[in-house]
Structure formats: C-alpha cells, structure tokens
Amino acid sequence: MELDLKASVFPLSVVKLNSLDYPQLARILEQKRAMAPGFFNYTPAVLDLQSIDEAPDFNKLKQLLTESGMVPVAIHNASEQQKADASQCGLAILTASQSTNQKQSQPSVKYIEQPVRSGQQIYFPGDLIICAPVGAGAEVIADGNIHIYGALRGRALAGAKGNRSARIYCQQLKAELVSIAGCFQVSEDFPETENKTVEIRLAEDRLQMRTL
Q1: Is the same domain home to 87 and 173?
Q2: What pTM does this model have?
Q3: Is residue 45 part of a domain?
C-alpha cells in the first residue's frame, strides 16, 4: 500500500487563553520562551478556549504561537462558532473524548541513580524515579509520574502523553520548567517553597504545588 493510517497518541502542550489581548499574549509568550527556549521549539500546541466567549482571530493566534517557536495544531473547549472559524484556519478540533487520557495497565518504572547533567534528556514511557539531582539545562520526561530525590534545576515533564493524573515530586524545586499533560509553569511563576519537598499536580488545567 502507498499509505498506512494508524491511530497514535502524542504529547501536546496546552495554551489556555484567559483573554484576547494579543499584544499582552505576545509579551507573555516571549517571556516564557526566554525562560525555557528548548520547551517551545517545534512544540505542537492546543489552544484551550474554555474562558473565551468571543470569536478569536485564529490567524493572529497562529502567528503569535509560531513566532514563539510553537506549532499550533488544534483547539479545545470551543463553541460551535469557534470550531467553524478554527476549521477555516486549518486547526483541528479536539473533543473531550479525544483529549481524555486512557490509563495504562501495569505501568513500568525506571530508576536513574546518576545525576542528570546539562544537555541530557531522559524519556521513559512509565514512571521515572531519579535518585540524584537534575541539573540546569537537563530534561526528564515520563508518561507517568516523576520522582526526584534531589534538586530539580532543569525541566521535568510528567504525563507526557496526556496523563492528567500524573504528578511530580522533588526534594528541592529550583526548576526552569515543570509540566503535566502539557500544562506548564516556568520558574518565575513558582510559589515560594523554601527548598522543601514539593508535590506538583494538575487541577482544572492549572498546576498546583504544595510542600510535603
């Protein structure tokens, strides 16, 4: 056959819009890109329109995301009119059933006992348990949870394939960026944790952090 069509699951970053102030959106995207440029490069992005009632300028939104390094691919939580407008601009429509993660049976675990150094990237399709620090410029990615028994100074991305129940645990939160199921925060948005052990979870499309 000349062409095979197969269903698959890929991690997508979610950009939740709270307003349509395009200059402000451009500034926020530029600030976040400056904090974690590697996260934005060629990253497929979904626009979450749950908080937007009016009709967005999808061409403008696509331009802003593209200029930040991301690749806009779809919208989510949209009205019927928003869906029609987005479709005209070449964006796919994600429904609740498509965006809901299916739990994996018997998730596996990988242990890392050496420090993860700058420039290294580790990915595992299960839970990652790292018994060492994660340095600035390093990136650890898991489809499940991430446990770091040491300082997190780089980037940690849990629930990479959309598992919204995934969590991140670390003994010292000094990260450049953390993400769960595509929802992320950069260091300037972190609450003061005073180098305590921290749990990070996803609740209503926002990351919540609490000390343990």
Answers
A1: no
A2: 0.61
A3: yes
How many domains, the chain?
A: 2
The CATH number of the domain where 42 resides is what?
3.30.70.260
Q: What is the mean pLDDT of residues 7-28?
A: 82
Q: What is the pLDDT of residues 72-85, one digit of tens each?
A: 999 999 999 999 99
Q: 207 and 114, same structural domain?
A: yes
Characterize the bridge pairing of strands 198-203 and 168-173.
Answer: antiparallel
Question: Which structure tokens are listed for 204?
Answer: 């209503």
